[in-house]
Specification:
This protein is an alpha+beta fold and about 70 residues long. Helix content is about 35%, strand content about 20%. The longest helix has 13 residues.
Length: about 70
């Protein structure tokens, strides 16, 4: 996420040379692309952390430091 980014609430994902923007509410791809397997993993992870992602979006909009979401092991 980026501070004071434009709506709708979203996050940015990178995989290899690919980059994508994913809406938090619907998990739809807004911009860019990811390989199908990577996109499925991103969506699965986002579903598990949707509430945290939404909270972090609010923090970023207020120029506050977002909370850290536990990375994949």
């Amino acid at each position: 996420m980026f501070f004071n980014d434009r709506p709708p609430p979203h996050f940015h994902a990178r995989y290899g040379g690919f980059e994508a923007t994913v809406e938090i509410g619907t998990l739809e791809l807004l911009e860019g692309e990811l390989p199908r397997r990577a996109l499925n993993l991103v969506r699965e992870r986002a579903m598990m952390h949707r509430e945290e992602l939404s909270e972090d979006w609010g923090f970023c909009r207020e120029n506050a430091v977002p909370t850290k979401i536990e990375p994949l092991a």
